[in-house]
Amino acid sequence: MTEQFFEMLWDCEQCATRGLLAKSQRHCPACGSAQNPEKRYFPEPGKEIEVAGHRYTGADWLCAYCQSPNGASASFCGNCGGPKDGTKEVARVVDKADEPPILAPTSVTPPSGRRGWGRMVAAIAALVAIVVGYSLFSKHDETATVVSRSWVRTIDVERFAAVSESAWCDALPAGAYDVTRFSQQRGTRQVEAGQECKDKRIDKGDGTFVRENECTPRFKDVPVFDMKCNFHVDRWQVQRTEKAAGDAAATPTWPMPQLATTGFLRGLGQERAGPRHETYTVNLAAKEGKQWRCDVLPAVWAALKEQQNVRLEVRGTGGAVCDSLGR
Ligand SMILES: [Zn+2]
Ligand SMILES: [Zn+2]
Predict the structure, then answer these.
(1) How far apart are CA 245 and CA 150, in angstroms?
(2) What is the CATH number of the domain that holds 309?
(3) Tens digit of each residue's pLDDT (9 = 90 or more) over 192-238
(4) CB within 5 A of ion ligand 1: which residues?
(5) 262, 161 in Cβ contact below 8 A?
(6) Residues of the domain holding 176
Protein backbone atom coordinates (compact mmCIF):
# COMPACT_ATOMS: atom_id res chain seq x y z
CA MET A 1 0.00 0.00 0.00
CA THR A 2 1.45 3.36 -1.01
CA GLU A 3 1.34 6.19 1.48
CA GLN A 4 -1.21 8.93 0.90
CA PHE A 5 0.09 12.50 0.86
CA PHE A 6 -2.04 15.59 1.38
CA GLU A 7 -1.44 19.28 0.77
CA MET A 8 -0.45 21.54 3.65
CA LEU A 9 -1.92 25.04 3.21
CA TRP A 10 -0.40 28.54 3.43
CA ASP A 11 -1.64 32.12 3.40
CA CYS A 12 0.00 34.85 1.32
CA GLU A 13 1.27 37.66 3.55
CA GLN A 14 1.51 40.17 0.70
CA CYS A 15 -2.04 40.08 -0.70
CA ALA A 16 -3.91 38.12 2.00
CA THR A 17 -4.93 35.29 -0.33
CA ARG A 18 -5.78 32.35 1.91
CA GLY A 19 -5.77 28.55 1.65
CA LEU A 20 -2.98 28.23 -0.95
CA LEU A 21 -1.54 24.74 -1.53
CA ALA A 22 1.90 24.31 0.05
CA LYS A 23 3.09 21.61 -2.35
CA SER A 24 1.62 22.77 -5.65
CA GLN A 25 1.68 26.55 -5.17
CA ARG A 26 5.20 27.73 -4.33
CA HIS A 27 4.21 31.25 -5.42
CA CYS A 28 1.01 33.16 -4.78
CA PRO A 29 -1.15 32.96 -7.95
CA ALA A 30 -2.60 36.40 -7.17
CA CYS A 31 0.54 38.51 -6.52
CA GLY A 32 3.48 36.22 -7.32
CA SER A 33 5.07 36.35 -3.81
CA ALA A 34 7.17 33.34 -2.79
CA GLN A 35 5.70 30.97 -0.19
CA ASN A 36 6.76 31.51 3.45
CA PRO A 37 7.08 27.94 4.88
CA GLU A 38 6.58 29.31 8.41
CA LYS A 39 2.99 30.09 7.41
CA ARG A 40 2.11 26.48 6.54
CA TYR A 41 -0.81 24.89 8.39
CA PHE A 42 -2.98 21.77 8.37
CA PRO A 43 -6.37 21.97 6.63
CA GLU A 44 -9.56 21.54 8.62
CA PRO A 45 -10.33 17.82 9.07
CA GLY A 46 -12.42 16.56 6.16
CA LYS A 47 -11.01 19.20 3.76
CA GLU A 48 -7.75 17.41 2.96
CA ILE A 49 -6.56 17.54 -0.66
CA GLU A 50 -4.59 14.53 -1.80
CA VAL A 51 -1.37 14.94 -3.77
CA ALA A 52 -1.79 12.13 -6.30
CA GLY A 53 1.26 10.09 -7.22
CA HIS A 54 3.55 12.04 -4.87
CA ARG A 55 7.07 10.71 -4.41
CA TYR A 56 8.58 11.91 -1.20
CA THR A 57 12.27 12.87 -1.49
CA GLY A 58 12.73 14.73 1.79
CA ALA A 59 11.82 17.97 3.52
CA ASP A 60 12.19 21.30 1.76
CA TRP A 61 15.29 23.42 2.35
CA LEU A 62 15.07 27.07 3.17
CA CYS A 63 16.84 29.46 0.80
CA ALA A 64 19.43 31.50 2.74
CA TYR A 65 18.85 34.55 0.51
CA CYS A 66 15.09 34.80 -0.04
CA GLN A 67 13.72 32.41 2.69
CA SER A 68 11.55 30.53 0.19
CA PRO A 69 11.16 26.72 0.39
CA ASN A 70 12.72 24.43 -2.23
CA GLY A 71 12.30 20.74 -2.90
CA ALA A 72 14.96 18.39 -1.45
CA SER A 73 16.10 17.35 -4.93
CA ALA A 74 16.67 20.95 -6.16
CA SER A 75 20.27 22.22 -6.00
CA PHE A 76 19.37 25.89 -6.52
CA CYS A 77 16.57 28.12 -5.30
CA GLY A 78 13.63 28.23 -7.71
CA ASN A 79 12.89 31.80 -6.61
CA CYS A 80 16.29 33.53 -6.64
CA GLY A 81 18.84 30.94 -7.80
CA GLY A 82 20.67 30.69 -4.45
CA PRO A 83 22.58 27.42 -3.76
CA LYS A 84 21.33 24.58 -1.53
CA ASP A 85 24.71 24.00 0.20
CA GLY A 86 24.72 24.83 3.91
CA THR A 87 20.98 25.58 4.10
CA LYS A 88 18.58 24.33 6.75
CA GLU A 89 15.39 22.31 6.39
CA VAL A 90 12.07 24.09 6.92
CA ALA A 91 10.53 23.87 10.40
CA ARG A 92 7.76 21.26 10.73
CA VAL A 93 4.28 22.24 11.85
CA VAL A 94 2.70 20.32 14.75
CA ASP A 95 -0.97 19.49 14.27
CA LYS A 96 -2.92 21.64 16.74
CA ALA A 97 -5.41 18.80 17.27
CA ASP A 98 -2.59 16.84 18.97
CA GLU A 99 -1.48 19.58 21.32
CA PRO A 100 -2.69 19.46 24.89
CA PRO A 101 -5.08 22.31 25.64
CA ILE A 102 -3.36 25.33 27.17
CA LEU A 103 -4.91 26.19 30.51
CA ALA A 104 -5.70 29.85 30.89
CA PRO A 105 -3.64 31.30 33.73
CA THR A 106 -5.89 31.95 36.69
CA SER A 107 -6.12 35.48 37.92
CA VAL A 108 -4.54 36.07 41.33
CA THR A 109 -5.98 39.51 41.95
CA PRO A 110 -9.57 39.41 43.20
CA PRO A 111 -12.05 41.80 41.54
CA SER A 112 -11.64 45.23 43.10
CA GLY A 113 -15.17 45.32 44.52
CA ARG A 114 -14.50 42.25 46.69
CA ARG A 115 -11.11 43.38 47.99
CA GLY A 116 -12.62 45.54 50.75
CA TRP A 117 -14.78 42.65 51.97
CA GLY A 118 -11.81 40.29 51.91
CA ARG A 119 -9.85 42.62 54.20
CA MET A 120 -12.74 42.91 56.63
CA VAL A 121 -13.20 39.12 56.77
CA ALA A 122 -9.44 38.70 57.35
CA ALA A 123 -9.52 41.26 60.18
CA ILE A 124 -12.48 39.50 61.87
CA ALA A 125 -10.75 36.10 61.51
CA ALA A 126 -7.59 37.53 63.11
CA LEU A 127 -9.62 38.95 66.00
CA VAL A 128 -11.42 35.62 66.56
CA ALA A 129 -8.06 33.81 66.48
CA ILE A 130 -6.69 36.16 69.16
CA VAL A 131 -9.75 35.70 71.42
CA VAL A 132 -9.78 31.90 70.98
CA GLY A 133 -5.99 31.75 71.44
CA TYR A 134 -6.24 33.81 74.65
CA SER A 135 -8.96 31.63 76.17
CA LEU A 136 -7.12 28.42 75.18
CA PHE A 137 -3.60 29.33 76.21
CA SER A 138 -3.98 31.94 78.95
CA LYS A 139 -3.69 30.66 82.53
CA HIS A 140 -4.13 32.16 85.97
CA ASP A 141 -3.79 30.92 89.55
CA GLU A 142 -6.76 30.27 91.82
CA THR A 143 -6.91 29.22 95.46
CA ALA A 144 -8.86 25.98 95.68
CA THR A 145 -9.86 23.77 98.62
CA VAL A 146 -9.44 20.00 98.59
CA VAL A 147 -13.02 18.67 99.06
CA SER A 148 -12.42 14.95 98.82
CA ARG A 149 -10.04 12.34 97.47
CA SER A 150 -10.76 8.91 96.01
CA TRP A 151 -8.94 6.03 94.36
CA VAL A 152 -9.78 3.17 91.98
CA ARG A 153 -7.61 0.11 91.34
CA THR A 154 -8.47 -2.48 88.67
CA ILE A 155 -7.08 -5.79 87.49
CA ASP A 156 -8.02 -7.26 84.10
CA VAL A 157 -8.77 -10.98 84.43
CA GLU A 158 -7.74 -12.91 81.32
CA ARG A 159 -9.07 -16.30 80.29
CA PHE A 160 -7.43 -18.79 77.94
CA ALA A 161 -10.25 -19.43 75.45
CA ALA A 162 -11.10 -20.25 71.85
CA VAL A 163 -11.78 -17.24 69.64
CA SER A 164 -13.12 -17.09 66.06
CA GLU A 165 -11.06 -15.10 63.61
CA SER A 166 -10.40 -14.83 59.88
CA ALA A 167 -7.24 -14.06 57.92
CA TRP A 168 -5.71 -14.66 54.49
CA CYS A 169 -4.84 -18.35 54.41
CA ASP A 170 -1.16 -17.56 53.72
CA ALA A 171 -1.01 -15.73 57.06
CA LEU A 172 -2.66 -18.14 59.51
CA PRO A 173 -1.47 -17.80 63.11
CA ALA A 174 0.25 -20.75 64.75
CA GLY A 175 -2.22 -23.07 66.47
CA ALA A 176 -5.19 -22.23 64.21
CA TYR A 177 -7.78 -25.05 64.00
CA ASP A 178 -11.28 -25.73 62.59
CA VAL A 179 -10.04 -23.96 59.43
CA THR A 180 -12.57 -23.35 56.63
CA ARG A 181 -11.52 -21.76 53.34
CA PHE A 182 -13.36 -19.50 50.95
CA SER A 183 -12.49 -17.23 48.03
CA GLN A 184 -12.46 -13.47 48.47
CA GLN A 185 -11.24 -10.48 46.46
CA ARG A 186 -7.81 -9.44 47.74
CA GLY A 187 -6.94 -6.63 45.32
CA THR A 188 -6.88 -5.66 41.66
CA ARG A 189 -4.43 -5.89 38.82
CA GLN A 190 -4.21 -4.12 35.48
CA VAL A 191 -4.75 -6.02 32.26
CA GLU A 192 -4.60 -4.76 28.68
CA ALA A 193 -8.09 -4.22 27.28
CA GLY A 194 -7.84 -3.31 23.63
CA GLN A 195 -6.28 -0.23 22.14
CA GLU A 196 -7.08 3.43 21.82
CA CYS A 197 -6.35 4.63 18.30
CA LYS A 198 -6.49 8.05 16.71
CA ASP A 199 -5.39 9.64 13.46
CA LYS A 200 -2.27 11.76 13.71
CA ARG A 201 -1.23 14.21 10.99
CA ILE A 202 2.48 14.60 10.37
CA ASP A 203 4.05 17.47 8.44
CA LYS A 204 6.58 15.93 6.01
CA GLY A 205 8.23 19.32 5.43
CA ASP A 206 7.81 19.39 1.63
CA GLY A 207 4.39 21.01 1.61
CA THR A 208 2.62 17.70 2.27
CA PHE A 209 1.48 15.76 5.28
CA VAL A 210 0.56 12.13 5.94
CA ARG A 211 -1.93 10.54 8.30
CA GLU A 212 -0.81 7.91 10.75
CA ASN A 213 -2.97 5.77 12.93
CA GLU A 214 -1.40 5.93 16.36
CA CYS A 215 -2.52 3.33 18.89
CA THR A 216 -1.82 3.08 22.60
CA PRO A 217 -2.85 0.14 24.79
CA ARG A 218 -5.76 0.66 27.18
CA PHE A 219 -5.80 -0.93 30.64
CA LYS A 220 -8.53 -1.90 33.04
CA ASP A 221 -8.55 -3.17 36.63
CA VAL A 222 -9.64 -6.75 37.23
CA PRO A 223 -10.22 -8.23 40.68
CA VAL A 224 -7.68 -10.67 42.11
CA PHE A 225 -9.10 -13.41 44.32
CA ASP A 226 -7.34 -15.31 47.06
CA MET A 227 -8.23 -17.83 49.75
CA LYS A 228 -9.52 -16.46 53.04
CA CYS A 229 -9.66 -18.67 56.14
CA ASN A 230 -12.07 -18.74 59.06
CA PHE A 231 -10.54 -20.50 62.07
CA HIS A 232 -10.44 -20.92 65.81
CA VAL A 233 -7.38 -20.21 67.90
CA ASP A 234 -6.85 -20.43 71.69
CA ARG A 235 -5.76 -17.12 73.20
CA TRP A 236 -5.55 -15.15 76.43
CA GLN A 237 -8.38 -12.62 76.35
CA VAL A 238 -9.65 -10.08 78.86
CA GLN A 239 -12.70 -11.77 80.36
CA ARG A 240 -13.66 -9.24 83.04
CA THR A 241 -12.23 -6.37 85.10
CA GLU A 242 -12.14 -6.60 88.90
CA LYS A 243 -12.27 -3.29 90.75
CA ALA A 244 -11.46 -1.94 94.22
CA ALA A 245 -12.32 1.67 95.11
CA GLY A 246 -12.45 3.91 98.14
CA ASP A 247 -12.02 7.39 99.59
CA ALA A 248 -9.12 8.89 101.53
CA ALA A 249 -10.16 6.99 104.67
CA ALA A 250 -9.37 3.62 103.06
CA THR A 251 -5.84 2.65 102.17
CA PRO A 252 -5.65 1.82 98.44
CA THR A 253 -5.59 -1.94 97.89
CA TRP A 254 -5.68 -4.17 94.82
CA PRO A 255 -8.80 -6.28 94.14
CA MET A 256 -8.43 -10.01 94.81
CA PRO A 257 -9.97 -11.75 91.79
CA GLN A 258 -11.09 -15.39 92.09
CA LEU A 259 -9.27 -17.10 89.22
CA ALA A 260 -10.72 -20.24 87.61
CA THR A 261 -8.12 -22.97 87.35
CA THR A 262 -7.96 -26.08 85.20
CA GLY A 263 -4.72 -27.58 86.50
CA PHE A 264 -3.06 -26.72 83.18
CA LEU A 265 -1.16 -23.48 82.53
CA ARG A 266 -2.77 -23.17 79.08
CA GLY A 267 -5.92 -25.23 79.56
CA LEU A 268 -9.13 -23.90 78.01
CA GLY A 269 -10.91 -21.91 80.76
CA GLN A 270 -7.73 -21.25 82.78
CA GLU A 271 -7.67 -17.67 84.17
CA ARG A 272 -4.83 -15.34 85.13
CA ALA A 273 -4.43 -11.79 86.47
CA GLY A 274 -3.62 -9.42 83.60
CA PRO A 275 -2.71 -5.72 83.46
CA ARG A 276 -3.32 -3.48 86.52
CA HIS A 277 -4.51 0.13 86.45
CA GLU A 278 -4.84 2.71 89.25
CA THR A 279 -6.42 6.17 89.30
CA TYR A 280 -6.11 8.76 92.09
CA THR A 281 -8.67 11.56 92.00
CA VAL A 282 -8.89 14.87 93.88
CA ASN A 283 -12.09 16.96 93.96
CA LEU A 284 -11.48 20.67 94.44
CA ALA A 285 -13.71 23.72 94.92
CA ALA A 286 -13.32 27.51 95.02
CA LYS A 287 -15.40 30.08 96.89
CA GLU A 288 -17.49 31.17 93.88
CA GLY A 289 -18.86 27.65 93.52
CA LYS A 290 -16.34 26.54 90.89
CA GLN A 291 -15.45 22.85 91.02
CA TRP A 292 -12.67 20.78 89.50
CA ARG A 293 -11.82 17.10 89.33
CA CYS A 294 -8.18 16.10 88.89
CA ASP A 295 -6.48 12.74 88.35
CA VAL A 296 -3.01 13.03 89.90
CA LEU A 297 0.07 10.94 90.66
CA PRO A 298 -0.18 8.67 93.78
CA ALA A 299 2.50 10.71 95.62
CA VAL A 300 0.62 14.00 94.98
CA TRP A 301 -2.65 12.40 96.09
CA ALA A 302 -1.10 11.06 99.30
CA ALA A 303 0.45 14.44 100.21
CA LEU A 304 -2.87 16.35 99.99
CA LYS A 305 -5.29 16.63 102.96
CA GLU A 306 -9.03 17.34 103.05
CA GLN A 307 -9.94 21.04 103.64
CA GLN A 308 -6.38 22.04 102.64
CA ASN A 309 -6.07 25.18 100.46
CA VAL A 310 -3.94 24.71 97.37
CA ARG A 311 -2.79 26.83 94.46
CA LEU A 312 -4.40 25.61 91.21
CA GLU A 313 -3.59 26.82 87.70
CA VAL A 314 -6.79 27.46 85.69
CA ARG A 315 -7.07 27.96 81.93
CA GLY A 316 -8.96 30.79 80.23
CA THR A 317 -11.65 28.23 79.33
CA GLY A 318 -12.12 27.37 83.04
CA GLY A 319 -10.42 23.97 82.99
CA ALA A 320 -7.88 23.07 85.66
CA VAL A 321 -4.21 22.39 84.85
CA CYS A 322 -4.06 19.31 87.10
CA ASP A 323 -0.27 19.00 86.79
CA SER A 324 0.03 22.29 88.72
CA LEU A 325 -1.07 20.48 91.92
CA GLY A 326 2.24 18.63 92.13
CA ARG A 327 4.40 21.71 91.57
ZN1 LIG B 1 -0.23 36.97 -2.79
ZN1 LIG C 1 16.06 32.06 -2.88
Answers:
(1) 7
(2) 2.40.50
(3) 999 988 888 999 999 999 999 888 999 999 999 999 999 999 999 99
(4) 12, 14-15, 17, 28, 30-31, 33
(5) no
(6) 155-194+223-275
